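Why predict the complex rather than its parts? Because the way molecules touch one another can change local conformation, and only a joint prediction can capture that. The input here totals 578 residues.
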Amino acid sequence: MKENVVLLGTNQNLVGVVTEPDQTPAANMPAVILFNAGLTHRVGPNRIYVKLARYLTEKGMVVLRFDLSGVGDSSVRTDVTSMEAGVMDDAKHVMDYLERTRGTKQFFLMGHCGGALTSLGIATIDPRVIGIVMINAEGGDTQWDEYDRKRKLSAYYENYYGRGALTSSEKWKKVLTGKASYGSILRNIFVNILWHRISATFFKLKKTLFAKPEALTRPEVAALFANIPSLVERKTQILIIYSQGSSGLERTQLLLRDVRKKIGDSPRFKLEVMPRCDHTFTMIDSQQRLYHMIADWCFANKPTTT
Amino acid sequence: MTPQILPGENIEAFYFGGEDKPLFGIYHVPPKASTRSHGVLLVPSIEQEAIRGHRAYRQLAIRLSRLGFPVMKFDYWGTGDSKGDGAIKGLAQWQSDIAAAIAELKQRSKVDKVCLAGLRLGAALAVFTAEKTPIEGLALWEPVINGESYVEALAGWHQDKLRYFLSDMPDFDVNTQPTELLGLTINKAFVDDLRKIDLLKIQQVSAKKIVIVEHQEQPEVAAFRTHLQQWSSDIQHRTADDPRVWTDDPDKALVPNQILQNLVNWFSENFK
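Output of the joint prediction:
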């Protein structure tokens, strides 16, 4: 396996790393491009991009991970353009580079969190993209972020008191001898457990029963998901992966209600939920399951001809 | 079109350190006209803290480079973009990586005097390097003084991080499960090495000039400063209550400006 650093873009401001097999990949094998997970630099959260890139390369694929302008080690753009246009232009430079130097004409785009949405956005405008993998597409929406925080805090404290504190003789001793912080206990029970649960449930009900698709989340995100039917029609393969319990999954499932009406049960669209994984795949076992799932999908969906 | 390079952002990105264990490095090339005679190597912390602190390290590199310092960042074996996907088997490898990075910085910059700057574990490993190697200056940002409490803090963070998402996660005990820690594949020797860190037991330090930057004054850091006075005549101490970027959400894009400026001013005033 070869791994090389590249500086790309008009100003050579984009820092990237290409991993590629020692032998030239099969002509029908698309190259993979990994997009920044939010503002985390190109190694990805818990370094999953590096390990995923090497895993896919071991299987015969060329993979490029890089930092978008202004993220990680890539300097900001010096021209005047919108953030979205800048991202699209950066992506175009990277695809052009791989096409020019490796002869790759087709691409799988992948990203975690914000990188998932970036992949979807670029796929809608560049027909060279024949597949995308969206991993835990979340964030960018304060109301869903707040829902997520409340839901998780409620579960955390419920578990803390239900499993840890209630069965701890030391903690009971503190409570009974006046050494516990009663204010903190009451706040955790009534605010962090009960009120947050009620509030989160109400939010979810409101979104599920009453919200129109465009009001489910930020309009830009809703618009991106609305592009999925036309991508499927263009024969783009789509894999959406969520960690179990992710609030992004709940948001996406609501957004997909309309999408599914249009695409039916198209084999080009797949949603996978991974049990026992946190948002950033902290556990090594969860990372490995992620790499296997993505590699299997890549090989199942590579074109039969160039 | 001629590339437009912003001041401090003229970089060389590369692999170095030999074919068997290549390491990833980024060298910030200083302006030719104002190049200083001291290079600065930024020593990374443990991976989770290094990923979250990446933006701060880059900002520090840019600011120092603008002032004429040749600056290099790098990733240890088995972390970041460096090679190695197996278990980290102890701190000896990372200490040897620091030595390789110093050699690389000297070779690229043509300077022979090097200062080290590090956050948390990076600060502790910088001190160990200065115990055995000639180093001109040390900039220590929230240094890990005691490995025992550091391991407990990392293990607690690991558990909390998972429990926040998966509330029914069983207890995480790094002693009985020394195979992973905050996304990093490790083994027992690595945990043992971390636990052995005790900066109050170092025998000497080559750096005559040292700055320690903390968010809030801590007694163990004060004791370390006293310990250092045996060998270093110029030990400065600064506090600034900036965001703790090494544990914060990277998507907040926080830059600890006061801390970075303190470090930059110290380098600028002390090294030509």
